[in-house]
Amino acid sequence: MLDADFFRRWMTAAAASVDREAERLTALDSAIGDADHGSNLQRGFTAVTAALEKEAPDSPGAVLTLAGRQLISTVGGASGPLYGTLLRRTGKALGDAAEVGEEQLAAALREGVDGVMKLGGAAPGDKTMIDALVPAVDALGSGFAAARTAAEEGALATTPLQARKGRASYLGERSIGHQDPGATSSALLIAALADTAEADGE
Amino acid sequence: MRMLINVPETVVADALRGLADAHPELNVDVDNRVIVRRDAPVAGQVALISGGGSGHEPLHGGFVGPGMLSAACPGEVFTSPVPDQMARAAAAVDSGAGVLFIVKNYTGDVLNFDMAAELAEDEGIQVAKVLVNDDVAVTDSLYTAGRRGTGATLFVEKIAGAAAAEGQPLERVEAVGRQVNENSRSFGVALSACTTPAKGSPTFDLPDGELELGIGIHGEPGRERRPMMTSGEIADFAVNAVLEDMPPRSPVLVLVNGMGATPLLELYGFNAEVQRVLRERGVPVARTLVGNYVTSLDMAGASVTLCQADEELLRLWDAPVNTPALRWGM
């Protein structure tokens, strides 16, 4: 079973990973966007870890809801509402249980991803974060490691696609041949989840 | 890179402090990033709130004041503001007559303003929204996020602002704003990429002797690249792209807008070419505005925006306005 501390460590691991990869995310974003995806997420996750240190929520749902709210209030751009909604919806779906199982988490994450698709209007194949998140959630039934692989493969698979959502879509065919920064950061978030589970010996 | 800054992290806050020093008639909340006209809320008037990423100055903070915006919410450079900013602005400027959000069609701006509308409505504030999407360089399609909002934002903010100043009700001010957007089209070209303070190098690579056609205002590359053209050739291309999409039925307002690093000497010369093309195409010009209004940091280049103006829109355009960047009639 996964408790509030597990989710806090997941968020901390995600923040560390965003810190490490910020330059790469920004470089990917400069090809088809405006070169700030890394720094924007960095600002958001720094606020998330600060808030979690201050408040220490006592349930998995509360950890993710708080994290989502922080992202909405600090990131801006499309990433703020989209990542914020992902975590908030997932958190709300988990309710106020003190511990949750892996199946419960998978179901809640699916609700979170559905929330993102509804808010952004994106579908798989549009060259967005959805292209990493949907395969990850589909694979979560087979374990955290499978989810990580699926997310990473999903992010890589955005390269040949033409963007149909977000700023990259304004480039039309010129968006082809570049990996999507949003799908890449989504893969980082899922990898942080898998790392946290592995550190636990799950 | 040489920039007149302290450190990249404080660029927006530093600019806001300077804006406050230069314009005591504005109330600038540097910490929460909200710029409000000092006499707000104005009783009986709909309040106009706009915002978006920083780096487009004077848009939007430079357009706060009587006859135009009630408040502006600047985000990080090229990043939309967060919902808390718009909700805070709405609470500060709402007189009970409601607020109108003016939003440029970028996914981030749309999502954050939508979330802000929910927050404001929770507080009992009536909210309406006008989405600006005037850029003909982006092909409309069911499968894209739609056209970008660029130069027409200035027309919408000025004309809807005049309607609000007259005391027109929220649904009328909203309708006027939508009409202006529907009547406006833009096309932009870049002669150089821009450099964001955070990245410190050009956002895309544009070799000497080439230009980008169909750029937006966020340093993203355009739709296509061509060998350098003359001012006259660029005017032909840009104006024809606009007119192809919107055959004019009435006299037009013309905005010849610099992207940040093109001097007025060049912009006025470009305007002469734009006016020539319009004459050749038989399009009467009602009013013309030339200058840097919707910029993209230090990008060189320009955009052309045309708005078909009936007598009512023209009357509202001519109405008094008093803001840091746009001022006439008072």
UniProtKB/TrEMBL annotation, chain A:
Occurrences of domain DhaL (ranges): 5-195
Q: Which UniProt keywords apply?
A: Kinase, Transferase
Coiled-coil stretches noted in the UniProt entry, renumbered to this chain: none
Q: Which organism is it from?
A: Streptomyces cyanogenus
SMART domains assigned: Dak2
Kindly give the InterPro entries that the UniProt entry links to this protein. DhaK_L_YcgS, DhaL_dom, DhaL_dom_sf, Dihydroxyacetone_Kinase
Specify the protein name: PTS-dependent dihydroxyacetone kinase, ADP-binding subunit DhaL
An example Pfam family from this entry, by short name, is: Dak2
UniProtKB/TrEMBL annotation, chain B:
A single Pfam family, by name? Dak1
Q: What class of enzyme is it?
A: transferase
Keywords on record: Kinase, Transferase
Q: What is its EC number?
A: 2.7.-.-
Q: Which residues form the DhaK domain?
A: 7-328
The answer to keyword Kinase applying to this record is: yes
InterPro entries associated with the record: DhaK_1, DhaK_dom, Dihydroxyacetone_Kinase
**Per UniProt, what is one GO molecular function of this protein?**
kinase activity
| NCBIfam families, sorted | dhaK1
The molecule here is called: PTS-dependent dihydroxyacetone kinase, dihydroxyacetone-binding subunit DhaK
Origin species, per record, is: Streptomyces cyanogenus
Record lineage: Bacteria, Bacillati, Actinomycetota, Actinomycetes, Kitasatosporales
